[in-house]
Amino acid sequence: MKKNISVLIGGKSVEHDVSIITGLQIVENLDKDKYNIFVIYIDKDGEWYFSDKLKDLTTYKDWEKNKKKCKRIFPNLNKKDKSNILNKTDCAIIAMHGNYGEDGKIQGMLDIMEIPYSSSGVLGSSTAMDKIVMKKIFSGMGLPVLPYIWFNRDDWAKDQKELINKIHYTLDYPIFIKPANLGSSIGISMAKNEEELIKGIEIANKYDKRILIEKGVENSVEVNCSVIKIDNEIKTSALEEPVKWEKFLSFEDKYLRSNGKIKSGLENMSRIIPARISDEIKTQIEEYSKKVYRAIDCKGVVRIDYILNSERDKVYINEINTIPGSFSFYLWEPLGISFSKLLDIIIEESIKDFEDRKNNIYKFDSALMEKIKRFSGAKGTKF
Q1: Phi, psi of 10, deg, nearest 5
Q2: Which of 10, 31, 52, 349 has the most CB atoms in a 10 Å sphere around its CB?
Q3: What integer pLDDT is reported at residue 361 of this predicted model?
């Protein structure tokens, strides 16, 4: 019997459009012989919609007009109500990047609704989403991180001069300024002097109340590693050198063909696979990646990003993406795992994890209610 798979896309996030692309790539690559595939779209106002038309990219180009052709739905905790597509879902694939999709919020909702889902759970999603929290976890695990400081938007408004002095005392240029809770390079700036630093902080302030300031590495090299669990064994992908963030292509160049269709494999993205690194550094990255995946209880496919110095002999762990763009399928293809097979693995592991959590005890019959009944009416009774 075919499984019902609901692909959740969109959301109230600045990464909304990237989510649509990832979601429709997933729809294209899910095995139609194995699954009934549904698309659930959460628009920029947070309203939920369902329709087969949501499988067509053109539906989103004039959303205000086309949403009238789609059915508006609402999450429903009543599992007996099978009129709601979510309640007929065997597994939800979350293709929502950034806030309200990658930060544990929708994961918690699906936990309450008792629906298996593809991504890391609330703990892994929320900790990985916050770059500051994740830095502290990396450091606590003894993993190498670049020097950094952080502060709140209110701190900046209160005393800019003091913070600038602290940054100058702690870090050398170049430095990166990052909102704590965003991805896809949105809101990130590089500064080589104080003027660029102030401008970068003002930009980051618009996206998050928590700001990370991180030491940059001259002529650095970025290396990415994807991780997944297969049959209780944590496995790492091929390693890549992606395009430098300063040279990111436009949204259209990255994700769309000239005919408006979604690119298969992000053909024009500049990436080198495998990464040009020594076996020693490769082993280090693979070991670090497995440790992090296990430490924050990840699930599904994640991508962990690293920074290397110009000599490529020192590695720093940078951040973890629990719902990477395109599910990083291109890092698994060199290992003989197609996008379609990767999705099969994700679905199987999601359902397996869901069934395993049923072994947890969630009900406990205590004597507390009986005590309350026995002593009801006694003033000041302590239990």
Answers
A1: 90, -130
A2: 10
A3: 79
Give me the phi and psi of 200, to 5 degrees please.
Answer: -65, -40
Q: Which is more confident, 84 or 333? A: 333
Tally of CB atoms within 10 A around 169: 8
pLDDT at 245 over 80: no
Residues counted in the chain: 383
CA angle 345, 342, 351 (to 5 degrees): 25
DSSP β-ladder status, 210-215 and 48-50: unpaired
Secondary structure letter of residue 367 according to DSSP: S
Four-residue CA torsion sign, 334, 27, 242, 237: negative
| Domain 3-118, classified CATH 3.40.50.20, yes or no | yes
- DSSP code for 214: E
Structure-block tokens of residue 247: 């040279």
| Measured distance CA(247)–CA(118) in Å, rounded | 31
- CATH architecture entry for 147-215: 2-Layer Sandwich (3.30)
Please tell me the distance from the alpha carbon of residue 167 to that of residue 133, in angstroms, as a whole number.
19
Q: Which pLDDT score is estimated for 380?
A: 56
Domain 221-357 belongs in CATH node 3.50.50.60:
no
Contact call for residues 177 and 204 (beta carbons, < 8 A): yes
Q: Could you tell me if 215 and 148 are in contact, meaning their C-beta atoms sit under 8 angstroms apart?
A: yes
Please give the Cα distance from 152 to 210 (Å, whole number): 5
Query: So what's the pLDDT on residue 259?
Result: 45
Amino acid 367 reads: A
The whole model's pTM is what?
Answer: 0.88
Map out the domains of the chain as residue ranges. Answer: 3-118, 147-215, 221-357
Q: What does the alpha-carbon distance between residue 39 and residue 34 come to, in Å, rounded to a whole number? A: 16
Q: What is the pLDDT of residue 294?
A: 97
Q: What tokens appear for 91 in the block?
A: 């597994």
Name which of 243, 242, 150 is nearest 205 in CA terms: 150
| Residues contacting residue 65 through CB under 8 Å, at least 6 positions apart | none
Residue 371 burial (CB count, 10 A): 12
